[in-house]
Amino acid sequence: MKPPPKLDDLIRDMKQDVPKPDWKSIDDKLFARIEREPRTFTEDEAPPNGRVIWIGAALTLAAAAAALLFMHPSASVDDSRAELSPTGGALMSGAASVHGAVARVGTQLAEGDRIEASQDTYFESQAARWVAQGGSVLRVEHTTSPLVLSLEKGATEAQVTPVPSGEAFAIDITASSGSMVRVAVHGTHLRVERDGDRVLVDLSEGVVSIGAPPRRGSTLGTLVTAPAHIELDARDLGTIRVDHAAGAVRAPEAVTATPHAEAETAAVLPLLNQPSSQSGTSSTTVPGTLARTQLQSQKPASNTAAPIIEPTWLRSSDEVVSALQTCIQNAVHPNATFSTTLKMTTLDDGRIQEPAYFDPPLPPEARDCAPNVLYKRTKMANSNDSVSLTIEVKH
Amino acid sequence: MEDGETASKPSVSAAPAIPFTRLVPVMSEESELIARAAKGETAAFRALYQRHRSDVARLVYRMLSGSADVDDVVQEVFVQVFRSLKDFRGQSKFSTWVHRVAVNVVLMHRRAARSRPTYTEELPPEHTPDGDSVLPDEDADRRARVRVFAKLLDRLADKKRTVFVLHEIEGISPQEIATIVGAPVLTVRTRLFYARRELEALMADEPSLAQLRGTFSRGES
Q: In chain B, is it the N or the C terminus that has fewer CB atoms within a 10 Å radius of its CB?
């Protein structure tokens, strides 16, 4: 009996496994695209550095949503039940007006809506959460994937969930010259600010593509990976400058209404699982919590929904598993069954060391909420520990 | 005149007297092709493409564990190469730079692919064997082993899988890999070490590989 194959045997096997691409097909398609390239970039022909165009097979694109307005820091429980539109987006908290009329929590955005945020205003759609910074003016250009917002003034920060279909969230900036720049979000956390024609993008997670808006399909432009601080003049894509130094990137802010309201969170979190029976606690809710709870309650929670024991922090494996089950359950197809193993290590203070690994990887829809659960809501009781957890979702 | 200017700037005159020799770069054929392609000359780009496409296809194929998307990704790699040619400064070998582009495109593709909800196991497509020197059974065994191994490779983290494929399968040196992945050589070596260790552990736990052991033995006998 001969010994089983060793790693080197398998490596040798793999070396012999040579691909046989369909070169004719590749050649035809490639050069057809190449022929189209000059037309795409003629307008921004400028400094060579401005043309670094990476478009990877980044289909993990993100998506998101729409726009608008809001409410004051005293939202009610009903606010937390604002319906999430798969295409538009709902105002979760803040203060803004749409077309000059005061928008309320739950206001759904539609194409053409022009949002003027008088204070930081949070919106949430199926694929993204975003905040219109106070004083900002945005317009909803397109609500189905990709959700496209036009930033007329101010800044917006977004947490975008990558989607398989392509860019799901994009921010357009029309320069004074009339030319347009698109920041297409492949995921996952970015902030875009404009000051006249000057555009600042801080990408703390994921990938963006910056270029001229395409008539259709993906944005062909400079592909930038996080961390990155990007500056450009909207009149000239060739002026783009990218700084990958972590220190140059503006610290990301949680795209939720009041991320620090831990005391209030304690009273509100139970609503996640029992929204109808807890309505009497509305006076204790705060908008910030609402945004977060809304995410987790988009669909009816199952009987395995996260049992929140302490305000904010998940401290046991069971709590983490439950929270992740809820997260995944809310994200994936209703009929899907999913099972994965999470491997994570806790730090001195009980927080989870990044990155934690899911094997198999999470469905894309869950890749937004899972990091929130792990890295922002979890402080395990056991520090400096490696844990392997099985998470199963059955509908 | 020049002397006078120098004299008025003592700090400059104190600098080592290194003659300013204008270096006239001697362009290799490939450098010339790169320069022409960067200006948008399709014929030059086609020549570069012909030179490097096989290497890229092989790397993509192995990094994607034999996925059916290889052709599309290879195409995307060269589109990115074309678009980014102006940024190639010649600070590394062109082939290294192309590998870097390929690795980035593959990683982005994988990230995108992961975003496709897949609840059933997708087996890599059957690969047509060369059939030159191996018997059908032998080749079938080998392909079966490769499929299993590809599955194991797929379970490695991107960074580890990348350096593993580049080094162990593509035979690229750690130094060059460091340039490709933008990490210190020591980091590359560390990733290689842990990639091998993880793969060996995965092999030990892989039931389908256990079945193939017999197959492998027969194949060797």
A: N
